[in-house]
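Design job #97: recover the sequence.
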């Protein structure tokens, strides 16, 4: 096995707010259901920053971030299914699931309680190689643009799944809160779904770009008058921000039976008035990523409609500059590291 003692060259943070430094580690013997992936590109997600800074209280140092990975399978265990050495695959937030619980057996591997995350307690994709279970090594469509595909494996599926869960229809009018890494992808998906898309953004500098990406209108989320002007109009709102907002003003923009769905990791409890839900049979929901099968479907949808994140590329060795660019809110709209 060439993978028995494969050396991995990576970038790791050793403490919260720490700079990423050169870090080398050895992968032990490959598990029978595991694959090793040679990383071609790795997107940067805001979750990488949250994990580096231990915002969620589960970071183990040193941490090698990176979980929007595309590359080639270079080694496979003896019981690997569905992919083989030489295949191009993507690996996202999840790197394994148990494959036997009710959730896995129902096709909801992303809800597996034993699920393993690529950068939680193990090393991710800011590296030349990364390891994962075959179930989450998602085969990439032949014609996909590798240089832009990485962010689809986390940011993309995270905003694609809610469209399916909420049964969004092409005739719907929908809203997206926060047009950043996730929001701009949601905007493109919903536009190609056939929806009229209202973008909520507090950054006037982005307005023209947001309209160019398919929004029919940009509403300043900090203006009560502008929110008032679309009261009762939206069938679905997707929140991609991780800050506390005046949730009731968004519930007011929902039509009866509408859903406010969050994928943004808002750390404070969300203040939701009961009457705002009761009056219009409205609901509040959330979700993590999506199943491996839905991820494949999304990748096919992206190739069919030429939907890709708008990316800025940095070489892998400029990872600290790239992280600073993200932290300063300057990313337009997803950063991808190239090996």
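Job complete. Output follows.
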């Amino acid at each position: 096995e060439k993978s028995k003692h494969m050396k991995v060259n990576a970038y790791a943070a050793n403490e919260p707010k720490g700079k990423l430094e050169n870090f080398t580690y050895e992968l032990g013997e490959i598990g029978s259901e595991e694959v090793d992936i040679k990383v071609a590109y790795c997107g940067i997600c805001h979750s990488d920053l949250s994990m580096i800074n231990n915002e969620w209280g589960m970071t183990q140092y040193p941490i090698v971030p990176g979980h929007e990975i595309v590359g080639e399978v270079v080694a496979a265990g003896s019981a690997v299914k569905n992919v083989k050495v030489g295949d191009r695959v993507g690996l996202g937030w999840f790197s394994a699931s148990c494959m036997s619980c009710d959730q896995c057996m129902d096709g909801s591997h992303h809800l597996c309680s034993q699920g393993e995350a690529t950068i939680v307690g193990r090393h991710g994709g800011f590296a030349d190689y990364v390891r994962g279970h075959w179930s989450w090594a998602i085969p990439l469509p032949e014609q996909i643009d590798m240089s832009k595909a990485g962010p689809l494996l986390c940011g993309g599926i995270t905003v694609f799944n809610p469209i399916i869960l909420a049964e969004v229809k092409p005739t719907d009018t929908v809203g997206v809160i926060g047009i950043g890494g996730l929001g701009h992808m949601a905007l493109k998906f919903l536009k190609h779904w056939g929806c009229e898309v209202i973008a909520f953004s507090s950054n006037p500098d982005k307005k023209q770009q947001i309209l160019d990406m398919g929004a029919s209108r940009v509403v300043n989320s900090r203006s009560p008058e502008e929110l008032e002007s679309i009261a009762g109009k939206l069938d679905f709102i997707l929140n991609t921000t991780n800050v506390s907002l005046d949730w009731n003003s968004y519930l007011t923009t929902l039509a009866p039976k509408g859903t406010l769905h969050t994928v943004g990791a808002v750390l404070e409890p969300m203040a939701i008035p009961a009457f705002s839900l009761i009056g219009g049979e409205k609901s509040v929901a959330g979700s993590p990523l999506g199943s491996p099968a839905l991820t494949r479907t999304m990748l096919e949808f992206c190739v069919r409609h030429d939907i890709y994140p708008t990316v800025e590329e940095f070489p892998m060795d400029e990872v600290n500059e790239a992280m600073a660019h993200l932290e300063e809110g300057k990313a337009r709209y997803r950063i991808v590291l190239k090996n």
